[in-house]
Write a structure and sequence with these properties.
Number of strands: 3
Keywords: Ribonucleoprotein, Ribosomal protein
CATH architecture: 2-Layer Sandwich
CATH class: Alpha Beta
Protein name: Large ribosomal subunit protein uL30
Subunit structure: Part of the 50S ribosomal subunit.
Strand content: 25-35%
Radius of gyration: 11 Å
CATH superfamily: Ribosomal protein L30/L7
GO biological process, one term: translation
Order of helices and strands: EHEHE
Shape: globular
Pfam family, one: Ribosomal_L30
Structural class: alpha+beta
Number of helices: 2
Helix content: 25-40%
Length: 59
Amino acid sequence: MAKIKITQVKSIIDRSERQKRTVQALGLSKMNQSVEVEATPQIIGMIRKVNHLIAIESI
């Protein structure tokens, strides 16, 4: 599978609890933090739910 780099670019303050937990499940805990993950269908679905809070790059 391809790897993707996910960076949190917006704050999760004043977001729904579901969005906060999704960002945390992706491995992000603070602004401008990046993680590299495999592009599985589960991860892609999580990215779609919070795409307005994160930036995605292909590796």
